[in-house]
Specification:
By secondary structure, chain A is of the alpha+beta class. Chain A contains 26 helices and 18 strands. Chain A has five domains: 149 residues, ACT domain (Alpha-Beta Plaits, 2-Layer Sandwich); 54 residues, no CATH class; 123 residues, no CATH class; 210 residues, Hypothetical protein af1432 (Orthogonal Bundle), CATH 1.10.3210; 135 residues, Isoleucyl-tRNA Synthetase, Domain 1 (Orthogonal Bundle). The chains are: A alpha+beta, B alpha+beta.
Chain lengths: 708, 291
C-alpha cells in the first residue's frame, strides 16, 4: 500500500540562492533517509519559493520493507559436544533468544561455522518512522550562511515559522523546539494572510495556488515570467523591443516572488546618453529589473519589473519603481559627470594610495608590475612568432597601467559590479584606440567558472599577467589555498590562466613567467627568507593542478598527464598538445609499441651512472645500428618538438621498437668487460632519453597495471 | 502623512505592541544601533522591547544638500525586539498599515541583506524591505555584538524615516518633505546640512581629531577599568565618530583604516564583555520583571 507525502518547511523570506540550494538539499536528504530506512517510494519532487521549501514524495510505501537479521552465537565446535549434544553454551544462547535449542541453525561466516538464528524483522509502519525522518531532514539542511532567531537553538537560512507534514490525509506529528508540525500552511504574505488547512498531500499544490495565491513550483513561475515577457514583446512592443537576456537575473528573480507579475515602467530620456553597458548594469543590478533594447540594440527608456503578484490597479507600484530607478540613474549620472573631470593620469595618482594587499604594495605598484610582465610575455611570444602585431608593446603598456584605474572612479566606488566595464567605456571616451578599452574589460575574465575568456591578444596577455601577479604575491606571503579555503579565488585565477593560454595557443614557459613575476616582488619588497625556486615550483604545480582538475572532471586519463609532466615541459599549451597526441595515439594504435621498449631500457639502466657513448667501443652490428638510428631520430624528434608535431614524434617512437628489440635479443648489455658494459648502458640511456623528450611512457597504466 | 505624524504613528504603534518608547541619545552616532538601548541591551538573556527615534550622522554621505536623498545627517526610527517574537514580520507589516500603506495594493518585498559592522564586531542576517522598489527598512536578526554570540536573538527594525516619508508623500527629495503641514524638511535641515558637509569634508582639524581619538581611547581604558559601562560606551561612540570624521577628511590611508577599525572593535569587545558581566552581577533584573 502506498500514499503520497507532502512536507513543507515554512519560513520567512529566504534569499533566492537558498531556495535553490534548499530544495536540492531537501531532495537529497529525503531520498537518502527513506532509502536507509527501507521505505520504498516512486519519486521525490521538491518545490520552493521565498517562504517555503517543500517536497512531495509520491507512492511512498506504508510499511518499511522487512529485513532478515542473523544473530550469531558461539562456534559450532563449542556449542555441541563430540556426540552432537548441545553444550551449556548452546542452551544459554537459545535461552537468551527465547527459543528451543532445536531451532538453532548453522551459520557459515568467514571465521568458520557458528550456530545462530535467522530472524525476519517485520517492517514498521512508515507513519511511525516519518517523524524522525522529517525532523532529521530539517536539522540536516545546511546553508552557506545560517542564523538563529528568538529563543531557538536550531540554525537555518531564515527563521522557520511552520511545518506542514501530511502522509495521505494524516498529519505526521513531530516537534522541533517549540515548532510543531501540522496540516496548516500559509499563502501569499499580503494577498492571503490567513492560515490555510490542507486536506491531504495531493491537494497541497492546488490549495496553495487557489487559496494561497502562491505558485510553489519553480518551473511554473519561470514559465509565467517568460510568458509575460513574450506577451510584452508580441503585444505591447510589436516586436520593436526586447529585454536584454540575462539568465542569472531570471533565475534570481523567480525566487524573489511567490507569484510573478510582469510590469513595464519608463525612465527619463535624459539618462540615455550614458554608455550602454553602464546603463544596463545600473538597471539590472541592484533593483533586479530587466533592461530593454530596441532592434538596433540601443537601450530603451523602458524597463521590466517582476513583482510579487499584486495587481497594480492604481499604477502606484510601477510609479514607485520608476522613482527608485530614476534615483539610481541620477546617482549614476552624477558619478559619470564627476568622473568626466578626471583622466587616467589622475586616477593612476590615486591608485598609489590604494593598498593592493598589505606587504604587497599599492594597486599602482601592481599596475607597474603588470606592465613589466606583459612586456616580458609579449617578447617571449614574439620570439616564437606567435605574436605578429608590432604595436602590441605600446598597447600592452598603456592597458596594463590603466586597467585598474576604474577602481577609483566614482562610478565603480558606487557600483562595484561595474568594474572593468567602466574602465573600458572611459578608455574609449578618452580616445584610447586599438584593443586598449576592450582589454581593460577582458583582463578580469573569466570572472566565474564557465565565464567567457578574453579575445584580444592585449586582453589575454594582460589577463594572464594579472592572475600570475596575484598568485605570485599571495604565495609569497603565504596566502595559499588549502582544502575548501580559497579566499582570494586563486584557483579560479589559475584556471583562467590555463584556459586563456590554451584558447590563444600561447606557448609560454610557466616557470619562466612565474619566476619573472616573483622577481618583480622580491626586487621591490623585502622578501628575505624566500626560496624563489621553491615558490616558483609550487605555483607551477598549483597551475598544472587546475589543468589536471579539468581533465579529471571530464573523466580523462590522469596517467597520461603524469607521463607528459615527467618530460619536464612547463608550458601549459605544450602539455596539452602532448597529452592530446598521446590520447589520440592510444585510441588508434597500440601504445605498448612505445611503452614496452622504453620500460625495457629503463629497467636495464636503473641505478646506473652515465657518460657519453664511445663509438669506438660499439662492436656488434646491432649496437651500431641502434646508436646510429637513435642519433638520427634524436634530430628528427627535436625538429618535431620545435614544430610541436607530437603525433609525428609518437610515430617515430612507435617505429623504434624493432632496433631496440634486435639489440636486446642479440647483445648482452652486462658484458664481462667493464668498459663495454658501461658503454652499452650509456647507449641504452641515449635511447631512453629519446622517449623522455616526449613523455615518460613508463608512467602509463596498461590494462590496470602500472608498468615499471 | 507629514514627517512628525509618521513618528507619532510609529511610536504609538510600537508602544501598543509592548515597546518602551525611549528618546534619542545626546551624542553623535552613525546609527540607532550604537545607542546603548540596542548596542548593549541586545546582549545577555534579559527581554527588551524598545523603540526610539535616532538622529544619525555619516559624515562621508554629506553632499552639501545637493543630493535629493543623501545626507550626512538623517533620522532613523529604531525598534529592537528581544527575543524576536514568532510573529515579528507580521508585527512589522502592521506598522506599515499604521502608516496608511495598503498592503494589498503595494509590492512589499523582503530582499536579502546581511548586515555587518566590523567597527563594533557586530553581524546579523536579514533583509532590506522594499515598498514598490524603494528601500524603507533594514530588518536584521542580530547574531553577534562586540564579538559575542547572542542568545536570545533580537530583531532590529530600522526605518529610514525620510525614505518612508518620500514614499508616503510621493516626493522625489528629502528637501521637499512636509515635516509638519507648513514646515518642510528643508526649512529645518537644509542650512545645517550645507554647513556640516563643508565642515566634515573641508574644515575639521585633522590633527585635533587624531589627538582626540587617542585621548578618547585612553579615557575609555580608564573608565572601563572602573566598570563604568555606560560611560565607557560613550567613549566608544566618540572614537567611532572621530574615526568617521577622519574618514570624511580622507586623512586615513587604506592600511591605517584597517588599524583604526581594529582599535574601535577592541574597545567595543571590552565594553560588551563588561556589560554582560555587570548584568550578571546584578542578577538580570529585567528577567525577573518579565516573569
Amino acid at each position: 500500500m502506498k500514499k503520497d507525502l507532502v512536507f513543507e518547511i515554512g519560513t520567512e523570506e529566504l534569499p533566492a540562492s537558498c531556495v535553490e540550494e534548499g530544495t536540492l538539499g531537501l531532495e537529497e536528504i529525503l531520498k537518502k533517509r527513506l532509502t536507509q530506512n527501507r521505505i520504498d517510494f516512486v519519486s521525490v519532487k521538491t518545490f520552493g519559493s521565498p517562504r517555503r521549501l517543500a517536497a512531495m514524495v509520491s507512492g511512498l510505501a506504508e510499511t518499511q520493507r522487512s529485513q532478515e537479521k542473523i544473530i550469531t552465537g558461539p562456534p559450532k565446535k563449542i556449542a555441541f559436544d563430540k556426540d552432537g549434544a548441545p553444550t551449556k553454551a548452546a542452551i544459554g544462547f537459545a535461552k537468551s533468544l527465547n527459543i528451543n535449542v532445536s531451532s538453532l541453525e548453522e551459520i557459515e561466516i568467514n571465521k568458520g561455522i557458528y550456530i545462530g538464528k535467522k530472524i525476519v524483522e517485520e517492517g514498521r509502519k512508515t507513519a511511525e518512522l516519518l517523524p524522525g525522518i522529517l525532523k532529521d531532514s530539517v536539522l540536516s539542511l545546511v546553508f552557506p550562511k545560517q542564523m538563529t532567531w528568538g529563543d531557538y537553538s536550531i540554525k537555518f537560512a531564515r527563521p522557520i515559522r511552520w511545518i506542514l507534514a501530511l502522509f495521505g490525509s494524516d498529519v505526521i506529528n513531530f516537534a522541533i523546539e517549540s515548532l510543531t508540525s501540522g496540516n496548516i500552511t500559509f499563502g501569499h504574505r499580503t494577498l492571503s494572510p490567513e492560515p490555510i488547512t490542507v486536506d491531504d498531500a495531493d491537494s497541497y499544490l492546488k490549495s496553495l495556488e487557489d487559496k494561497g495565491r502562491v505558485i510553489v513550483d519553480f518551473k511554473k513561475r519561470i514559465e509565467l515570467i517568460i510568458d509575460g515577457l513574450n506577451n510584452l514583446r508580441k503585444n505591447t512592443w510589436n516586436g520593436e523591443f526586447e529585454i536584454v537576456p540575462d539568465k542569472d537575473l531570471l533565475n534570481e528573480v523567480v525566487n524573489l516572488v511567490e507569484i510573478p507579475n510582469v510590469l513595464v515602467g519608463n525612465f527619463s530620456k535624459r539618462f540615455l546618453y550614458m554608455p550602454k553597458e553602464i546603463l544596463i548594469k545600473v538597471i539590472q543590478h541592484h533593483q533586479k529589473y530587466f533592461a530593454v533594447i530596441d532592434k538596433a540594440g540601443n537601450v530603451s527608456t523602458q524597463f521590466v519589473v517582476v513583482q510579487n503578484g499584486i495587481e497594480d490597479k492604481s499604477g502606484e507600484i510601477i510609479n514607485g519603481n520608476e522613482k527608485v530607478l530614476g534615483a539610481r540613474l541620477s546617482d549614476a549620472v552624477f558619478f559619470y559627470e564627476e568622473d568626466k573631470k578626471h583622466d587616467f593620469d589622475s586616477w593612476c595618482e590615486k591608485l598609489k594610495g590604494v593598498i593592493f594587499y598589505s606587504n604587497l604594495g599599492s594597486i599602482y605598484d601592481k599596475a607597474c608590475r603588470l606592465k613589466e610582465i606583459c612586456l616580458h610575455t609579449s617578447s617571449l611570444l614574439k620570439d616564437k612568432g606567435i605574436l605578429k602585431n608590432d604595436n602590441i608593446h605600446d598597447s600592452l603598456s598603456r592597458a596594463a597601467i590603466f586597467c585598474k584605474c576604474d577602481l577609483v572612479t566614482n562610478m565603480v566606488v558606487e557600483f562595484p559590479e561595474l568594474q572593468g566595464i567602466v574602465g573600458k567605456e572611459y578608455a574609449r571616451e578618452r580616445g584610447e584606440k586599438l584593443d586598449i578599452p576592450e582589454s581593460i574589460f577582458e583582463h578580469y575574465l573569466p570572472r566565474f567558472s564557465g565565464d567567457m575568456l578574453p579575445d584580444t591578444d592585449v586582453g589575454s596577455i594582460l589577463s594572464v599577467a594579472d592572475k600570475i601577479d596575484t598568485i605570485s604575491g599571495m604565495f609569497l606571503i603565504g596566502n595559499i589555498p588549502s582544502g575548501s579555503e580559497d579566499p582570494f579565488a586563486l584557483r579560479r585565477k589559475a584556471s583562467g590562466i590555463v584556459l586563456s593560454v590554451l584558447k590563444k595557443k600561447y606557448d609560454l614557459d610557466m616557470e619562466d613567467l612565474i619566476s619573472y613575476s616573483l622577481g618583480l616582488y622580491i626586487e621591490k619588497f623585502n622578501f628575505k627568507d624566500i626560496n624563489k625556486e621553491e615558490v616558483c615550483r609550487e605555483i607551477k604545480d598549483f597551475i598544472v593542478a587546475r589543468y589536471r582538475f579539468m581533465l579529471e572532471k571530464k573523466n580523462r586519463r590522469l596517467d597520461v598527464l603524469e607521463a607528459v609532466l615527467a618530460s619536464g615541459c612547463s608550458s601549459v599549451l605544450d602539455i596539452d598538445l602532448r597529452y592530446k597526441a598521446i590520447e589520440d595515439f592510444i585510441k588508434e594504435k597500440d601504445i605498448e609499441t612505445i611503452s614496452t621498449p622504453m620500460v625495457r631500457c629503463k629497467n636495464i639502466i636503473k641505478g646506473k651512472t652515465f657518460s657519453d657513448v664511445n663509438t669506438q667501443l660499439l662492436s656488434s652490428q646491432y649496437e651500431k645500428k641502434l646508436f646510429s638510428s637513435a642519433t638520427e631520430k634524436r634530430n628528427i624528434i627535436v625538429d618535431y618538438i620545435e614544430k610541436k608535431q607530437y603525433g609525428c614524434i609518437l610515430a617515430e617512437l612507435g617505429s623504434s621498437g624493432k632496433d631496440i628489440d634486435d639489440f636486446f635479443d642479440n647483445v648482452l648489455v652486462m658484458d664481462k668487460d667493464e668498459k663495454i658494459r658501461a658503454n652499452r648502458v650509456n647507449l641504452v640511456k641515449v635511447v631512453m632519453d629519446l622517449y623522455l623528450l616526449m613523455a615518460d611512457f613508463s608512467k602509463l597504466v596498461i590494462e590496470g597495471n602500472k608498468i615499471h | 502623512m507629514n514627517f512628525q505624524d509618521i513618528i507619532f504613528n510609529l511610536q504609538k504603534y510600537w508602544a501598543g505592541n509592548g515597546c518602551l518608547i525611549r528618546q534619542p541619545m545626546d551624542l553623535e552616532k552613525g546609527a540607532g544601533t550604537f545607542n546603548p538601548d540596542t548596542f548593549l541591551r541586545c546582549l545577555g538573556p534579559e527581554p527588551w522591547n524598545v523603540a526610539y527615534v535616532e538622529p544619525s550622522r555619516r559624515p562621508t554621505d554629506g553632499r552639501y544638500g545637493e543630493n535629493p536623498f543623501r545626507t550626512q545627517f538623517y533620522y532613523q526610527f529604531q525598534v529592537l525586539l528581544k527575543p524576536s517574537p514568532d510573529n515579528v514580520v507580521d508585527l512589522y507589516l502592521g506598522s506599515l498599515k499604521s502608516l496608511g500603506i495598503d498592503l494589498k495594493l503595494h509590492d512589499i518585498r523582503f530582499v536579502e541583506d546581511d548586515w555587518q559592522s566590523p567597527t563594533i564586531g557586530a553581524a546579523g542576517l536579514g533583509w532590506e524591505v522594499w515598498a514598490d522598489g524603494m528601500e524603507i527598512t533594514q530588518f536584521t536578526y542580530f547574531q553577534q555584538m562586540g564579538g559575542i554570540v547572542l542568545k536570545p536573538v533580537s530583531a532590529e527594525l530600522t526605518y529610514g524615516l525620510e525614505r518612508i516619508a518620500m514614499y508616503l508623500q510621493k516626493k522625489d527629495s528629502f528637501w521637499d518633505l512636509a515635516w509638519s503641514d507648513d514646515i518642510t524638511y528643508s526649512d529645518v535641515q537644509f542650512e545645517s546640512e550645507k554647513e556640516w558637509s563643508k565642515y566634515n569634508f573641508e574644515l575639521a582639524d585633522i590633527d585635533m581629531l587624531v589627538d582626540l581619538f587617542q585621548k578618547f581611547e585612553k579615557e575609555f581604558r580608564k573608565v572601563i577599568s572602573k566598570n563604568l559601562v555606560f560611560v565607557a560606551c560613550e567613549y566608544v561612540l566618540k572614537c567611532s565618530h572621530v574615526f568617521n570624521l577622519l574618514d570624511a577628511r580622507e586623512a586615513i590611508s587604506v592600511a591605517e583604516r584597517t588599524s583604526y577599525i581594529a582599535r574601535v572593535r577592541s574597545l567595543a569587545r571590552a565594553l560588551c564583555q563588561s556589560y554582560v558581566s555587570q548584568r550578571e552581577k546584578l542578577g538580570y533584573p529585567l528577567l525577573k520583571k518579565n516573569s
